Amino acid sequence: MGKYEEGKTRQDLLEELAEFGVNPAIFQAISSEGIRDLIERMREISGSRPASGMGGPRNNATPTLSETDREILKVLLGSTGKISSLQLSKRLGIPLSTIQRRRKKLESDFLEMSYSLRVEKFGWRRVSLFISAQNGRTAEIARELLSWKDCTILVSRTMGKNNVDVAAECLVSGNDALLRLIEKVKSIGVQDVSWSETVEVVGHNQGHLVRMMEDLAKDRQVQVG
Q1: Are 57 and 23 in contact (CB under 8 A)?
Q2: Which residues of 57-84 are buried (b: 16+ CB within 10 A; e: fewer)?
Q3: Is pLDDT above 50 for 92?
C-alpha cells in the first residue's frame, strides 16, 4: 500500500469509495485493509485517484465537485478563510482528517489567499491609475510601470469603456507624490491617465460567490485536482 493511504481513517476510505461512485454501505462489513486494497485496484483500473477526491485527472472523465467540497467552500467563503480546520470539522460534522485533506486541495485549486498590508498605518496611500496607451504600446507601458519597484504594487492589462488599456495599483506618500507619479506616467508616452483612491471599504459580500458555486455544481462538472 502506497503512502497515499497513510493516516487515513476508515471514514476517509468509505468517503473515497463514494467518490468512485460506489455505495460505501455495502462494504461496512469489510476490514479497513480490505477497503484500501479495493481502492488501490479501482485506481489501477481508472488510471487515477477518485473523481472529487483530491486526485489527478481521470482518463477523459470530468468529475464533479462533491457535496462535501461545496459545504467546505461555502463556509470558507463566508468566513474569508478565518476559520480553523477543527472549527470546520465541528461545524459541518465531518472528520478532521477529511476536512484537512479537502481544504488543502480546495485552497490550492479554487481559492486565492494572501495577506494585504494596511499601508495607511505607515502613512502611505494606495491609488489606482487608469492609463490609455498609445497604439501598440500597451504591453510596453505595462512592463515599464511594473519596473517601478519603489511605488508599483500591481499592473494589469484591461479592456472596456473609456479606452483604458492598463491599470496599476501604486503606493504614494501624499498628494505631492501622487502628482509626481502622474507626471512620470505621462512622460513615458501615454494618451491619458486618470486615478482613483478608495477612501472607505463599506463591506464585503461573498453571497454571490456561493450562489455561483452552487450553479456550477448544478449546470456543469467541476474538476478538483
Answers
A1: no
A2: ebeeeebbbbebbbbbbbbbbeeeeeee
A3: yes
Rounded to whole angstroms, how far apart are CA atoms 5 and 17? 13
List of domains in the chain: 7-63 (no CATH), 65-111 (1.10.10), 121-197 (3.30.70.920)
The number of residues making up the chain comes to 225
- The Cα–Cα gap between 35 and 8 comes to 11
7-45: per-residue pLDDT in tens? 577 777 777 777 766 677 777 778 877 777 777 777 666
CA-CA-CA-CA torsion sign (194, 148, 121, 174): negative
Cβ neighbours of residue 84 closer than 8 Å, sequence gap 6 or more = none
Q: What is the CA radius of gyration of the chain?
A: 25
| Strands 152-157 and 125-133, bridge-based pairing | unpaired
Tell me, what's the pLDDT at 224? 45
